């Protein structure tokens, strides 16, 4: 009976050892694959990005920003789109919270551009309105009835 227990123990230990070796091998292969993807992505990306309100530019180490995107009123910097064919693979690694944060960022950036456009238009309207008031006031000409404060 002791021989059977010893044999069973050796078989179990051997099975655990084989399973551990197989698992270590798979983990090693996965680690190498992730390292390969990381190195490959880094080799295709510029060293820095300059992100503006309506576009972005890329730059390599020691150079001035170049390769700029076209200006757009609906611009938001999308890092995943820069990875081209790898974006689907990378998207699979992102958690739900990160995806929600990226969507919130896109909405916020679109709102910021809209607020900027509205603010610029309101400022221009205020300047034209005040300039018109000053011209009528200094010229002692009665402002038109439709003009506010007239």
From TrEMBL:
Q: Which InterPro entries match?
A: SUR7/Rim9-like_fungi, SUR7_domain
Q: Which UniProt keywords apply?
A: Membrane, Transmembrane, Transmembrane helix
Would you tell me the Gene Ontology cellular component terms?
cell cortex of cell tip; plasma membrane
Q: Nucleotide-binding as a keyword?
A: no
**Coiled-coil intervals, chain numbering:** none
Biological process terms from the Gene Ontology for this record are: fungal-type cell wall organization
Residue stretches spanning the membrane: 113-138
Alphabetical list of PANTHER family matching this protein: CELL MEMBRANE PROTEIN YLR413W-RELATED
The name on file for this protein is Actin cortical patch SUR7/pH-response regulator PalI
């Amino acid at each position: 009976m002791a021989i059977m227990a010893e044999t069973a123990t050796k078989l179990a230990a051997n099975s655990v050892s084989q399973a551990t070796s197989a698992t270590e091998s798979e983990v090693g292969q996965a680690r190498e694959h992730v390292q390969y993807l990381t190195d490959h992505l880094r080799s295709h990306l510029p060293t820095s990005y300059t992100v503006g309100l309506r576009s972005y530019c890329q730059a390599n180490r020691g150079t001035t920003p170049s390769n700029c995107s076209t200006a757009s009123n609906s611009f938001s910097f999308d890092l995943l789109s820069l990875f081209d064919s790898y974006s689907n693979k990378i998207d699979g690694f992102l958690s739900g919270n990160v995806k929600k944060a990226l969507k919130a960022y896109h909405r916020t950036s679109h709102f910021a551009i809209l607020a900027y456009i509205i603010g610029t238009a309101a400022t221009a309207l205020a300047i034209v309105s005040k300039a018109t008031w000053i011209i009528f006031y200094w010229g002692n000409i009665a402002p038109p009835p439709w003009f506010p404060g007239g």
